[in-house]
Design goal:
The structure holds two protein chains of two kinds. Chain A is α+β, with helices and mostly antiparallel strands. Chain A folds into three domains: 154 residues; 116 residues, Lipocalin (Beta Barrel), CATH 2.40.128; 138 residues, TATA-Binding Protein, CATH 3.30.310.160. Chain A contains twelve helices and 26 strands. The radius of gyration of chain A is 29 Å and the shape is globular. Chain B has five helices and eleven strands; from the N terminus they run H-H-E-E-E-H-E-E-E-E-H-E-E-E-E-H. In chain B, strands 1, 2, 3, 4, 5, 6, 7, 8, 9, 10 and 11 form an eleven-stranded mixed beta sheet that branches. The chains are: A alpha+beta, B alpha+beta. Chains A and B meet through helix 1, strand 12 and strand 14 of A and helix 1, strand 7, helix 4, strand 9 and strand 10 of B.
Chain lengths: 544, 251
Amino acid sequence: MMEKAKTATLIVLVVLSLLQSYLLAYSMPGLGATVRSDQDYVNAEPLGKTTSVESVIFPEELILHMGEDKHTVIYPGTQFYEMILNQRIVGREFKGFQRSSASILNWDEVRKDSIGIELRFTDGISVELLQKLLKMEGDILFLRDKIDKIWIFKTTDTEEIRTFFFSSEEHVVYESVRADLTVRDVQDYVGFGTYLPQYRMTADGLYIPVEPIMATELIYPYETYSPEQMQRSLFFDSSTTRSFEDRSGSQIFTDGKRGLKVEQDGMWINYTNPAATTSSNTPLSENVYASVDFINQHGGWDGTHRLISSTPEQEKKYVTFRQYIDQYPVIDSFAFRYGHIRLTLQQGVVTEYGRSLITLSSQTESRKPRWLQGGTRLEETLERYPRRGEVTALFPALKAVLLEENRLQFIPVWVVRLTDGAEVILLEAIEGEQPPEPHTEDGAANTNSDHDQTEHAEGAGEPQGQAGTGAGQGTSPSKGAGTGSAVLPPKEPGNHEEPVDTGEPELPPDDSDGGGGEELAELPEENVPDAEEQETPELSRAKS
Amino acid sequence: MDWSRAKTVLIISFLMLNILLGYQLWVDISEQLNANVNSAELPADKVQLMGQKRISLAANLPAGTPKLSDLTYLLRSDKRSSPKKLEKPVDSALIFDKAALVKALGGQIPDIENYEYDLHSDRDGVFVMHRMVDGRPMFNVKLELQYTSNRKITSFQQDRVEEISHGEEKQVIGSAKVVVSLIETYLDEGSVIADIQLGYHGQIFDSEKQVSAPTWRVMLGDGKVYYVHAISGEVATEGADEESGSESPAA
């Protein structure tokens, strides 16, 4: 009897333990609420190319001062820009910053008489971000400041190099007393200027080319992302996303919190995702990092972009990147938005995102030479401009024009930036194979007029004679080298006081690819023709 | 072999195993019950964190995690036009008595029976009522009653909705979870949580059709509002929302 009871108890206990184990292992299905988390975020397909913060930070222009009040301006993406900035200056170290008043030197005299180079960042860039480009070591006061220009020059009387970082705050400069730049370096940089068009400075500090400079009108075929691709990339769960049209006919996607507005016939999107501010303070540069990451994940980058600086208040909220094609920034109009990516952030969280859905093809459909006006023609137009007093900068850019059959045209233009930040097109470049104002004083340079490309030939230029005399300005358009700052054929260097023994200064091999290597690689192939590559060694040989 | 003794040993060991498993199971179940049914309780460590940040909770945490769906509807707002005058101003005390208010204004304001007064959204000289759907407010859809210093409601501005359709139902997260996430990351020291309510909220676009998702609205004592998406748990503030709302039509 006792044994039977024991057996029964044992069986009950075994069954019970099995049952409990089962319940534990499957933890009472049906009881738990499913909580969705950020991990549900399926990133369907990566769109576009990714980039890094390093490759969106570079100076807007380099200005070479060659002494005797001769200057030249070099734009990003050109061969000389690469050679000076990414192959040379980027490898240098700047240390020992001393803060002082800007009035310690007469900058007008320095500009006129001393050879040197200026790196310009319009509206300034925070030192923290600049460290992505240059190697700098400084105290906390310096690291928190913003820099709008770096000036490296050789003093006239002594053989000494001085390096100044200009703070965006007026009248404050920092001198880097331990910068590893030598007199030879600066002469090296300035030597490149010999091959470039000359500029003169107006009374208020704008640089105007003495002669017209060559630029190229480009036509690119393009593709667009479909709104659905963007939707998949930006929303949690496309099954809960509703789509409808708003009063202006734009398509809208929303899941109740996020909104995606597709405008301009599917070529521009505006994404909004309201977020809450957190109580913690994030550094300003955090916004830039967050923006780059966000764009990498949602749409990517079409070509080279540059971080546009802004005022400190704006910097807390907005981050803007401007697209560069060849060497010029793209200017859009209100009617056709293109060429920039703008994000609104709250302490590192993207709340708004506006960008184009257009991806340009890697090859141009056609290239046509144009001439950006120089000299008196440009100066007169500038003087006649009604808001002349408000002009803070003058620069060449490309105006984007939408053509039929999915093509975009880029027309070189002169653009003025006004004190309120507005950018206005001043002049459109003149069509034609030859420069429009052919009154060059020296006919020394050869003309290279053996055009091998015929597709541009029909471009009826302004009535002008003297074919080829403008070649002091640049090579023939057919070479395709450097579409803007035209490149002279190498000639004997005449203005070097002391001979330079070996051409190339030693460079740390790895540092230069952070900023420049990629940019160059991302430019359309046509842009880096063989002609240029062959010229590089020639130039350095010419210097030695 | 002593079979009887072996059985005794087995019984004792299985008994111990059962006790162990039973305890585990009980802990698991009680945890899950806490998380879901009894969500009005904050975990002890969060209460401690609240103490450290001097955050106080002046509202009851609503219990329950109902299944709610997002709403698609047509919005007709007269936000851009000026307020409409009431033909017969009514006493402002009526706002606290829904039946009397509906009776007094029913002929003048369409659909007023579908709106519910929200004490926490009041501004100076304005009573705010929200459109209710299945007993829950739509925070974007308001009926604003303006009253004068002599306690008369004189004019109104109304957002009207039509053709409300429901999407797929999903279980919302509990109010305690919402409060915990706010306490951990968003709330400043010394904040007072004045109200927490489940309703619908969404970005308003320049279109007739609008979408609102289930949302917890958490109001602070100083008037700051957090909207927490009741399914994904994402947080937005009132200010950010209004800004984007006003910018998109302009763009």
